[in-house]
Amino acid sequence: MPSAPRCLVGLFCWSGKIPRRGRFVKEVARPRLGSAVLATTTALLFCAALSHAQSGYPIPSASPVYREVTDETGRTVRVPQPVNRIVSLAPSLTETVYALGLQDHLVGDTEYCDYPPDAQKKTKVGGGINPSLELIANLHPDIVLVTKAFNRLETVQSLDNLGISSYATDPHTVEEIISSSIKLSNVLGAPEAGATVASEMKRRLADLQQRIGALTPKRVLFVVWTQPLISVGKHTFIADALRLAGAVSIVDSEQDWPQVSLEEVARLQPDLLVFAESHSESASPAVETLATLPGWSIMEAVNKRRVAVISDAVNRPAPRIVSAIEDLAKQLHPDAFTEKPESNKEKIEKENPPPNQKPTGHSTFSPGNSQARMAILGGCPCAR
Hints:
It is a single chain. By secondary structure, the chain is an alpha/beta fold. It has four domains: 6-55, no CATH class; 65-170, Nitrogenase molybdenum iron protein domain (Rossmann fold, 3-Layer(aba) Sandwich); 216-337, 3-Layer(aba) Sandwich (Rossmann fold); 350-377, no CATH class. It is built from 14 helices and 13 strands. It has helices spanning 24-29, 35-55, 91-99, 133-138, 153-161, 174-187, 191-212, 237-244, 262-268, 280-290, 300-303, 321-332, 344-351, 370-377, and strands at residues 6-8, 12-14, 65-70, 76-81, 86-88, 106-109, 123-124, 143-147, 166-169, 218-223, 247-249, 272-276, 307-310. The strands form four sheets. It has a five-stranded parallel beta sheet with strand order 7-6-5-8-9, sandwiched between helices. A four-stranded parallel beta sheet has the order 11-10-12-13, sandwiched between helices. The protein has a two-stranded antiparallel sheet with strand order 1-2. A hairpin with a 5-residue loop joins strand 3 and strand 4. Helix 6 (174-187) runs antiparallel to helix 7 (191-212). Residues 1-39, 44-60 and 357-384 have low confidence and may be disordered.
């Protein structure tokens, strides 16, 4: 009689002696009749069923795949592959995710993530300073996106303790915003989209410099807050955006968000005051109020109401900042964006060229038409 079947749960079962190497198939293939075979077969099926029941899965699941990357603060981050669920803890990062076309993977963001409008429909996890770790964990993100300038180190450490990966960005110039978008696209598995976004940003900035690069920069005061007066330091991406727009901040501070005295501003006499759109509704009243205050009233920019109001995109290190730069450039240097009107003679010559001369104008659908090309690429009308 064969010995009782032996089982190793989750591995295999056998009956009797283990066959010598190379003979297992032969032993199984050799027909054996009788009750012994039936008993052995029943035992094998029983062991297989027991193994299946105890393991819970017919086939062991594959281990999660991770990729190690270094974020912009120097931290080594293990990112699950592929990245299917994203939580953003900064408005700039939410905008970048949308610019990369990955909004369907964005499962949560903060109360301050309001652009594009669709971002307001995402599950909110609180603010950027004190987000709800419970809400974040319940969303089961593959990666949480943070930025050094907006989020706290304690948040990153708490996420790490929960076993949730987080990736941090830290751009300080517009060029770094572009490179940061490329890095983020690689982390999120969309390198082609990142390359496209970066290329378009560079193209628009290059076109802008062709218009204003040779012009004398306007001296401006960028107003972050009025009471107390807070501006931007020279090492911030906002100061760099001002430079690209054909301006230079009168504040030459090493601090990112310095408090500035009215006496110093009055002494420096900026050509214009620049406000972000978030303060646009109160910009005019603020100037009217400032005009009545000591120090402000002797500033020519205040008395003559020379104020530029631009999109709040200038406050966010994301691809949309290029639109704010273009907008400010048009307000600071309007003549650079005014096309020279054609004389009647020029119009007649263009419409009626000599027989041997090709028309100088381009068809609306000609690949050489810059406006048509910009429409296809999503460019700005102010760009060449």
